[in-house]
Protein: thioglucosidase
Organism: Brassica oleracea var. oleracea
Amino acid sequence: MRAFSHLFFSFLVILFAISCSDAFTRNDFPEEFLFGAATSAYQWEGAVDEDGRTPSVWDTFSHSYNRGNGDIACDGYHKYKEDVKLMAEMGLEAFRFSISWTRLIPKGRGHINPKGLLFYKNLIQELRTHGIKPHVTLYHYDLPQSLEDEYGGWINRKIIKDFTAFADVCFREFGDDVKLWTTINEANIFAIASYSEGFAPPGHCSPTSFFNCSTGNSSTEPYLAGHNMLLAHASASKLYKLEYKSKQRGSIGLSIYAFGLTPYSNSKEDEIATQRAKDFLFGWMLKPLVFGDYPDAMKRVWGSRLPVFSEEESEKVKGSSDFVGIIHYTTVYVRNSTSTTPSLIPRRQDFFTDMGAETICKIYFLFHSSMDQNMASWFLYLIKYSCSSFWISHGEFYIL
Ligand SMILES: *[C@@H]1O[C@H](CO)[C@@H](O)[C@H](O)[C@H]1NC(C)=O
Ligand SMILES: *[C@@H]1O[C@H](CO)[C@@H](O)[C@H](O)[C@H]1NC(C)=O
Ligand SMILES: *[C@@H]1O[C@H](CO)[C@@H](O)[C@H](O)[C@H]1NC(C)=O
């Protein structure tokens, strides 16, 4: 079982921070600041075929190769009370988790599964009883397999309507107790991993001699999926603001995966490449959310491969996030890519070649002789999680 939970990364980061500096205490942070941890349904719940849950694209994807799966995971579906107790003992003030769409609505739309509903109500109640604020992520990469089969999931605009209907059920059923909603987790990296690189479900990419996806097009699908995510987010957010916000008084936002990006050298071209990487990796999602359109740098490179917002869509996307979730693990160096940059794998046109910049993981990593084996392997996993996609794509990886 390799689907380790973000929860533990957060624990580690906290532990690490504490060991580095004894000088800070809770009192150094504002009252409203929340210390918490996070996970996702597929990483935590297990119980994948119990009580009416049906397969999501994660189940299909992880079972399609011998790569580990979330069939049992942390068994949170059965052990949530123990887990919440542990969280309370640790002093967590918030817990961010995601709702498994197929546990709540097994066919993707329509019938609500009473046992799924009860599980999330119980979990939310348990958190609140222990004084822990629930923060719900609606979508954490686990699309109902039935919707993927029916119309291709996120690359089809039909997803907007189905996602909004799913969100509606969640707002209606849980919104009296949940004040923080993230519509889509790490939307940028989800589009890249799932539709450009092919290493997250549904595993789409253009084939190369190194890695074959069964279907996909890395030069078009990530942008199509990203576009539909922004529209689906905006649609759910609009619904929340119209129907629920005044009564429930919560906030709704979208989260992105945010590397720190820093130029590899002090050359002008690496500096420009770093700005371009910021536009591509963050501006892609953030500029539409704030200004209603994509960054100019992306429009120039993508041309007709970049979907266009109609005026109405642009207005809807603009201002649709009360907050932006920033998920940060590590910092990478950015170097202008040239045709002579060595690469482990044959190039195809994909998100990173469009970006025209190499992202290089450079991690200063000291094995302390006192660090026990377990701790060391957590750190290695953290590095792998943060860097491996870039290593696979772009062939430079350092552990110093
Ligand atoms: C991807 O789509 C583009 C634009 O439609 C097309 O030119 C290209 O051949 C496609 N690539 C693959 C691998 O299917
Ligand atoms: C991927 O598919 C191509 C074309 O069918 C083939 O030439 C190549 O050997 C395959 N690569 C792998 C790793 O299976
Ligand atoms: C960056 O690399 C590209 C080739 O990929 C090259 O055309 C360009 O001149 C380089 N420098 C800058 C500043 O873009």
Notes: The first strand starts at residue 36 and ends at 38. Residues 343 and 395 are 5 Å apart (CA to CA). The radius of gyration is 21 Å. Residues 1-16, 364-371, 388-400 have pLDDT under 50 and may be disordered.
